[in-house]
Please model this.
Amino acid sequence: MPQATLTRIVNFSASHRYFRPDWSDERNAATFGACAREHGHGHTYTCSVTVAGPLDPDTSMVMALGALDAILGDEVVEVLDHRHLNLDIPEFAYGETVPTGEALAVFVWQRVARRLPAGVRLRAVRIEEEPHLYAEYFGE
Model:
């Protein structure tokens, strides 16, 4: 059975702050720069999710696009869109994981991977903050 990949891209807008409450203001500023400022800042993120698997002999699809769209709607857009990541997402609360692009890619991976149909695996998650800045996670 031929193997293929399928990538779907969704967008969400969110704000965040890079800050560790166990560090001094000076250390936060030195490590995170302007991203450590008190009120944070926002992005319109582009999230690319790539799944892989065998082509279904009846549909010639890795998985139904509508099913992938529903997963991304539930697990990415609904959860992250128009949120302050530090204040609204427990995993990124102050004192927990700093909401970097890298950490967001892992977060999305964990949420999406558990919802995929049998035989379909996650190949990559890419979180783009800006056209010239993105992070990718490959489940490693």
The chain is about 30% helix and 30% strand. The beta strands are 3-16, 41-54, 83-84, 121-130, 133-137. The chain has a mean pLDDT of 97. Residues 17 and 39 are 7 Å apart (CA to CA).
